[in-house]
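Extended Data, panel c. Modelled sequence:
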Amino acid sequence: MKNSQKLECTDKAVDVWNPEGRAPVVFVCEHASNFFPPEFDALGLDAAAQVSHIAWDPGALAVAMGLADRFDAPLVHACASRLLYDCNRPPEAADAIPARSEMTDVPGNIDLSADQRAARVARFYDPFCTKLAAVLETQNPAAMITLHSFTPVYKGQARAVELGILHDDDARLADAMLAHADETKMVTLRNEPYGPADGVTHTLKLHAMARGIANVMIEIRNDLLVTEAQQDAVTDDLYRMIRAAMADIGHPLKEEAEPCPKS
């Protein structure tokens, strides 16, 4: 399942990987899947758009699952395409249900009524928030970490950054991770290629900052996540960075029980 290209989530809006994990950290992947329930007719998108980065964050789930396994931590992940509803956006945000994503029109999201938008919120966003809140309340973790990937070329502009460490007003965990950026050869920058002004820290603010939980959003350039070997290499780097950072903020994590499998 780690490297599956489409989650078999059927009608679920959200699921939890490794729910019995006991590490003091919760991982989150809001854009884990490019699944479209049949009744949405893929929002009128062609096959290429359905598997492209506009529909999900390719490779992010594999890395999130790898980290959850290595740290023995739970991972809360969405089970449907972010084009149906972007669980990292509040309902009032226009791009929560985008009529256009980057250079692509999304026919099934054009001219939605207030009732149709509310139905999407109820179907996808509310269950995601409820599940994540329940996991956080049960686990009472020291940190929450969200995993994303981004395209190397956006609107015709190439991006040099390979690893983004993003934060909002609470920079504790981001600062600690950036202090250990020498654990990776990836070009690593703060609040790149997105930052708080882009509205990408919604999950951090709503679920972690509101609870006083240290938090960070990790963005990985998706051309570094194409193969299983690449996914494992990035997981290795992030494992070392997160482990060192958690120790720095006073919440050391135990050694992994088993080494990360290699292809």
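Helices lie at 47-51, 60-71, 114-139, 172-178, 202-208, 228-248. This feature is highlighted in the accompanying rendering.
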